Amino acid sequence: MIVITAPTGQIGGRLLDILLNDAPAHGEELRVIVRDPARLPADVRERVDVVAGSHADAEVVDRALAAADAVFWLVPPDLRAPSLDTAYLGFTHAAAKAFTAHGVGHVVGVSALGRGTPVADRAGLVTASLAMDDLIAGTGVAYRALANASFMDNLLRQVASIRDEGVFTGTLDPDRPAPLAATRDIARAAADLLLDRSWTGTGEVPVLGPEDLSATDMARVMSEVLGRPVRYAHQSLDDFRAALVAHGTGEAFADGYVDMMRAKNEGLDDGVPRTPRTAGQTTFRAWCEEVLAPAVRA
After folding, report:
1. Nearest Cα residue to 103 out of 238, 214, 1
2. pLDDT, tens digit, for every residue of 192-235?
């Protein structure tokens, strides 16, 4: 039995699609924890065991992890959380206890690059995510943290600006190369770990994407794929924070985002070498052709 959290999100939804196709051949049953089961398509609800509720809730997690062999763990962003510890560690405490109580063998979690870099202890959301990894690893389960680069898919939040103004915005220095990962590659990495549980102990599985790109590089690729000019607008961290707060993000998460982006500019994502194992398959150009362009033209 594989239990999937956040099955309607960017990564969890793609993971569920993969496992619905691949799990039967491995003799695996699937269970999902979802706040609103109606958000799952009817045909999906018929093929999985559904536990309704939040995976921060001790009673919900206790029910969901009964007879579970493996768990996909993802903490959803709580933009109004009073602290990052509450958002990550507080959210995970009930599950950590349930992993032990139910003898769960393997857990795969969504985390971030940065462990071992000089800025890892002041990287906001990433620092909190790494502490969550330590909490889970401390339960004694076999644990793999998917150490992810920034998501290509986050650009979908700026589709309107790209379409209407030919502009996307960010806080990284324009010419600083950085890794980028597609969420479908992250989901594939999670599926591979969940289906082949021959691994033991704890560790990280980096998902970097096939190449490092600067914002200037990204603008060039988007311009070529979309057939229109796209430029990068560099945003100060102060302006970034003000925009987050204006859109309803709480103080703790706003500071966490700012600290994370500052750390990325200072080398947070630079500590893992790219190898065939860590690269992922989806290039930024392919992602723009297959995901961004249809969204912009819709």
Report:
1. 1
2. 999 999 999 999 999 999 999 999 999 999 999 999 999 999 99
Adjacent-strand bridge partners of 106: 70, 142
Report how many domains make up the chain: 1
- For residue 141, the number of C-alpha atoms closer than 13 Å in the C-beta half-sphere is 31
The structure tokens listed for 64 are: 């969901």
| CATH code: domain of residue 6 | 3.40.50.720
Residue 262 in any domain: the answer is no
pTM beyond 0.85: the answer is: yes
E strand intervals along the chain: 2-5, 30-34, 49-52, 70-73, 106-112, 142-148, 150-151, 167-170, 178-181, 202-207, 212-213, 231-234
Collapsed DSSP state (helix, strand, coil) of residue 101? helix
To the nearest 10°, the Cα dihedral for 244, 123, 34, 61? -140
- Report if residue 66 sits inside a domain: yes
Instruction: Indicate whether 222 belongs to any domain.
Output: no
Residue-range definition of the domain harbouring residue 200: 2-153+180-209+267-282
Query: Does a structural domain hold residue 252?
Result: no
